Amino acid sequence: MSPKTLYDKIWDAHVVHEADDGTCLLYIDRHFVHEVTSPQAFEGLRMSGRTVRAPDKTIAVPDHNVPTTEGREDPEAMTEDSRIQVSALDKNAREFGVHYYPVSDVRQGIVHIVGPEQGWTLPGMTVVCGDSHTATHGAFGALAHGIGTSEVEHVLATQTLIQRKGKNMKVEITGKLRPGVTAKDITLSVIGATGTAGGTGYVIEYCGEAIRDLSMEGRMTVCNMAIEGGARAGLIAPDEKTFEYCKGRPHAPKGAQWEAAMDWWKTLFSDEDAHWDKVVTLKGEDIAPVVTWGTSPEDVLPITSVVPAPEDFKGGKVDAVKRALEYMDLTPGQKLTDIQIDTVFIGSCTNGRIEDLRAAAAVLKGKKIKDGLRAMVVPGSGLVRAQAEEEGLADIFREAGFEWRLAGCSMCLAMNPDQLAPGERCAATSNRNFEGRQGYKGRTHLVSPGMAAAAALTGHLTDVRELA
């Protein structure tokens, strides 16, 4: 047998049929659905008289549209569009008999946090969801990616997906990270090095000492943003940290099934002589705390840098930088640490887990945020929220001046009441800084949780290492 990558192994284990042109029918182990991309898919089933093929492998959770303030179960708390979509998911989940975590359930939260938390996400699986950041689940050595609404219907009806195999890309982060540098800085630095199209057509496997040193939550952050680098999916080979994280979770295998699963999981690594179509290597010690300055995740620099000028770039990027600087109201040569902010958002499927909240709270403990600043923390799930309250983190946030919210996607995207006003500037732990992503004409700077907390204290983008 020829050597295989991790991607090759998972793909080959799930191919149901391969056509002469290379198009494959792929079996899907887990299907996550939320309220935004599923209504038309369920309606398609209803109109054709079909049922959900594997309701036991389908998990529904509302997250994008739900308000994060108390009293949100009142339909009047939502916009009409949100109310219709959440109501439709509620009806569809119950009618088709899939696993469901409604807003009233403490286990509700962002779909990509709920899945791993409940043990639905396991090594070697194929995982899909009508959401681009499904790449998050690749942290477990699962082949996970977003799909469109018509594909959501196809998976609901057949538990399969029509796919073409991508190419193999290795991203290696060697050595150790320096103090103050996090998984968020790794994944943004990779995108800065490759560009947002660097991974187009590829599935990325992240490896190297710095990746192995990350916790499972850090690995989820790295894989979460593989999609922002253009990749179809991101993968990290499972190891003892992975197995320990999964063990004992509600939907993880137990007893003899666990032992059988472990036998398979321990084969999930890239063979030594496996072929890579593209290789990118970064030195861990060269990565610094970073911040985005423009309107694309590739517009990223160390916090110690200055805003670049259009003439620093070539080709079509020159005009893109001109537009970004105008939209962001920034001047070439301006220190990144001189950029004043109005808002801080800590949350999202990128950085809404308990370790993210601990990191931010460690910076904020005993301090107060800048007068006049708006700051909110939105835990990634009800269980993360409960754990943070039990650990005293919620008290630290409240005492510092943060709003302590209920679980949901919140200000990561402008699909719920948590939005930026036109011209408002935000240090956010989310994954996208596109024009209007957090609200019409809102301006977003992507940072790690510690960097977001530091910015909240000073009122401007700040090197968290100066506050350590």
UniProtKB/TrEMBL annotation:
It is an enzyme of class 4 (lyase). One of its GO terms (molecular function) is 3-isopropylmalate dehydratase activity. CDD domains: IPMI. Pathway: Amino-acid biosynthesis; L-leucine biosynthesis; L-leucine from 3-methyl-2-oxobutanoate: step 2/4. [4Fe-4S] cluster binds at C349, C409, C412. SUPFAM superfamilies: Aconitase iron-sulfur domain. Binds 1 [4Fe-4S] cluster per subunit. Residues 8-459 form the Aconitase/3-isopropylmalate dehydratase large subunit alpha/beta/alpha domain. It holds the Pfam family Aconitase. Gene3D superfamilies: Aconitase, domain 3 (3.30.499.10). Its cofactor is [4Fe-4S] cluster. Its EC number is 4.2.1.33. InterPro entries: 3-IsopropMal_deHydase_lsu, Acnase/IPM_dHydase_lsu_aba_1/3, Acoase/IPM_deHydtase_lsu_aba, Aconitase_4Fe-4S_BS, Aconitase_4Fe-4S_dom, IPM_dehydratase_rel_enz, IPMI_cat. It catalyses: (2R,3S)-3-isopropylmalate = (2S)-2-isopropylmalate. Keywords: 4Fe-4S, Amino-acid biosynthesis, Branched-chain amino acid biosynthesis, Iron, Iron-sulfur, Leucine biosynthesis, Lyase, Metal-binding. Catalyzes the isomerization between 2-isopropylmalate and 3-isopropylmalate, via the formation of 2-isopropylmaleate. Belongs to the aconitase/IPM isomerase family. LeuC type 1 subfamily. Heterodimer of LeuC and LeuD. HAMAP family: LeuC_type1. PANTHER family: 3-ISOPROPYLMALATE DEHYDRATASE, HOMOACONITASE, MITOCHONDRIAL-RELATED. This is 3-isopropylmalate dehydratase large subunit. The gene is leuC.
